[in-house]
Amino acid sequence: MSDMRYLHRADLPTLFSAIREAGYRLIGPREETGQGGLVYREIDGVEDLPQGVRDSQAPGHYRLVKTGSARCFAWANTASAIKPYLYAPREKLWRAVRKDGRVHFEAVEREAAKTAILGVRACDLAALELQDAHFLQGAYVDPYYKARRERLLLVAVNCTHAADTCFCASTGDGPAAREGYDLLLDELEEGYLLRVGSERGAMIAADLPLQPASAAQQAEASAQSEACARQQQRALPSQQRLQQLDALLEDARWTRIAERCLSCGNCTAVCPTCFCHREFEVPALDGKSTEHWRDADSCFNEDHSYIVGEVVRHGSRERYRQWMTHKLFNWVPQYGRIGCTGCGRCTTWCPASIDFVLEANVLLGLAAAPEVELPHVDGSEAAE
Amino acid sequence: MKPANPYLPWEAEIVDRIQETPDIFTWRLRFTDREVARQYGFKHGQFNMLYLYGVGEVAISVMSNEGEELLHTIRAVGRVTRAMMELKVGDHIGVRGPFGSAWPLDVARGKDIVFVTAGLGCAPVTSSIKHVVANRADYGRLVIMQSVRHRNEGLWEPQYDEWRSLPDTQVLLTASRDKTRWPHWHLGRVSVLLDEAQYDKQNCVVMMCGPDQMMADTSRTLVDLGVPGESIHVSLERNMQCAVGHCGHCQLGQHFVCKDGPIFTWPQVAELMRVKGY
Amino acid sequence: MSAKPRVAIHKFASCSGCQLAFVNMGAELIELTKLVDIAHMAEVGHVLSEDEDMDIAFVEGSITTPHDVERLKKIREHSRFLITMGACATSGGIQALRNNADTAEWMRSVYAKPEFIHSLSSSGAIANYVKVDFELWGCPVSVRQMLAAVRAFLFGVTPPNLREKVCQECKRRGNNCILVTQGAACMGPVTRTGCGALCPSFGAPCYTCYGPAENINVGSFGRRLMGLGLSQEQVLRKFASINNAAPAFSDAAKLFCSEPWMEE
């Protein structure tokens, strides 16, 4: 690992211009004004960053709070991870043309735009590694994912604030990033510590007015990360303990969860590791050509487990069980580790406020089930 | 052969078509690109993704690969296969493949071979049976069990009659819903055939294809009869869209049925098939 | 006599919004007329009798009179493929709210001579009276789905029938969930896809116009809405909207009508 350097807050724009000059379009965290919350979108300059903003998260709840701080990365995470920039939620795969009784197939692979993402979290980097394993490292390579992955620049920023839904410390994926980045920042009050993680990152760093980082600054950065880990209130049981879910496939708890589950698939849509997609055809009205597309799919949809005439997982009990056991148990033989990196999005973005980590703990007998299971009806969560 | 884009089909022409029963048909296909035709090779038990223009793809096991022609036997049950039945000789479709695991014909050498199939489950084993027949000396006894609902839904009866006349070979057919018992036919499900089948339980390889419930029941019975679980191989059907382990639909527990299967040993899936709706 | 498939577009009790969506589809309408013969569509002046044989009949509107029933039966008899078009035809529409009221009393209070009015006591979905081959939901329908249905028919297959929730489409568009970020009473988690998550993409809550999705949990979701500050009556009204007579939503409305367990 390279040594740490220091970039003054006032010099942050030089990072933006260095990335741009290297030919990347820049994606970063910003407030979504219509729907609320943070998103990774194209940003023009430092003024687009969510300065002095913190996220308040709870099951089924996400709000931004103004803190007045000068910091731009003092939030935990965004609604969707960086996943859509690699594995597109909707994508054309190929097209076919029918002419004179013949069918001609044409791939629609395009060269991806060079894309830099700023403010990537440790949990999302770990998730990206899992998506790489899925789309790139099997017997077959996904050319669409690969094209974008190869032209990606990742500028990670270590977390200094954990949301109430975060549990990356328990999965071992955060709050500090260990690998998989091109550049890594620690945000301090007055500026940024910077580490280089790749050749690509080194070329960007070479253009920045960096100074040596002091021992005090480095100590402050590690203290921040440690405090952020301690701040986390939720913990997923160990991978070894989670193996016991295998013996609980008929547990009554799945039915209790299904009583609340809306089977809406929001959890799988925001999960940074979920990879399921359905393929479908979009023929031109005149029938002379047709396009073959894929959409992000969810194990909460009926067509996910459809085989001729039968939906294997017909209800929410079976679907939630599939989602959780895949993520926490079946992922291990597939990719060598659990499929959860502790971001907590499945819990925050669940419209029924189902707490994924709590449910795993309840199933394994490590936590008591809450007394009130169904959503409260007292208006206590009314919008402020 | 592995294309750069595993999702992109190759064009193929329907060079012949046989209407086997009112809802089952067989296609003889030829890749229009000679290079693809020359390079294409499949292992017994693998499947292809067949594409109907403007409608979509379905996973169909390869019945056989004769010269540069591929045979697929298809039942018209879903929106894609029903429309496929309407295609004529000379029409063009798309083909990707082959995908998935194969029947263990190599490790089966020197052992008794038992095929257990139900309904159209006979198609994915046909090429394997032919392989065993063609290399008869390499294998021990050959037992072929096939179950259908009604005899008139059965496919390729003359073929079974032919196999019945081979040395050291037993062909057992049963119709589960017929009233009349035809010569060479039994009445009832596959289970009624198991008592009659003669093979070395300790030294056999069982290859099975049919509905989940039939395979689970039969596998359990065979294990009870003394056949080691590892000697039993089942071919599963799940929702397959990408066929390369990416789309996630075919998952059964830890397995991607499209790439880890469709052929599994019984112990790999026995517990999973016990859990309803998994 | 053209060899093109013949298409009819019929209207029953409705606002004609689905037909308007059809007429407004733009350039594809010209393409469509090359592929099919739009033989009957009163809205644009093509009027034929219901006894004319058609390949596809699109039916807009709900059934509210005895005469409607007779006309519909004739349409069915003469159509190879019958597709309901929009919320009214598919579930009974907003006007099905009257199914819960004393309509005879309403007629007496509104009309001087109610005996001249021949009306059924309910506003019914087309499927309540005849076999429907395919349903297009929405208020109004999505022209994209309508054209996909025609294309599928021309290919000789049934159209794809996706019944997932609006949330799925909403997330694919990269939206943040407004129920979670704002406490908005967005009905996406119980509503069927098809609109492309139009409303939530603009920050407005979904209001069920594509009807119920598959495997929905109205009890849990209704309670959650109450947790967000809606009264039980307001939750009832959320379900008793454009598709109030769709069974899953009418059940929900009953659940939130006056159940004692809701009084906390």
Automatic annotation (TrEMBL), chain A:
4Fe-4S ferredoxin-type domain sequence ranges: 252-281, 331-359
InterPro entries: 4Fe4S_Fe-S-bd, 4Fe4S_Fe_S_CS, Helical_ferredxn
Entries under PROSITE patterns matching the protein: 4FE4S_FER_1 (PS00198), 4FE4S_FER_2 (PS51379)
Domain of life the protein comes from: Bacteria
One Pfam family hit: Fer4_22
Keywords: Iron, Iron-sulfur, Metal-binding
Gene3D superfamilies reported for this sequence: Alpha-helical ferredoxin
Name of protein: 4Fe-4S dicluster domain-containing protein
Automatic annotation (TrEMBL), chain B:
FAD-binding FR-type domain segment(s): 7-105
SUPFAM superfamilies to which the protein is assigned, alphabetical: Ferredoxin reductase-like, C-terminal NADP-linked domain, Riboflavin synthase domain-like
Domain of life according to the entry: Bacteria
PANTHER family: DIHYDROOROTATE DEHYDROGENASE B (NAD(+)), ELECTRON TRANSFER SUBUNIT, DIHYDROOROTATE DEHYDROGENASE B (NAD(+)), ELECTRON TRANSFER SUBUNIT-RELATED
Protein name per the record: FAD/NAD(P)-binding protein
Top-level taxonomy: Bacteria, Pseudomonadati, Pseudomonadota, Betaproteobacteria, Rhodocyclales
Automatic annotation (TrEMBL), chain C:
Entry cofactors: [3Fe-4S] cluster
InterPro entries attached to this UniProt entry: Hydrogenase_assoc-protein (IPR051349), NADH_UbQ_OxRdtase-like_20kDa (IPR006137), NiFe_Hase_small_N_sf (IPR037024)
Entry keywords, A to Z: 3Fe-4S, Iron, Iron-sulfur, Metal-binding, Oxidoreductase
Protein origin, superkingdom: Bacteria
Positions of the NADH:ubiquinone oxidoreductase-like 20kDa subunit domain: 15-152
Coiled-coil annotated spans: none
Annotated Pfam families: Oxidored_q6
Protein name, as recorded: Sulfhydrogenase subunit delta
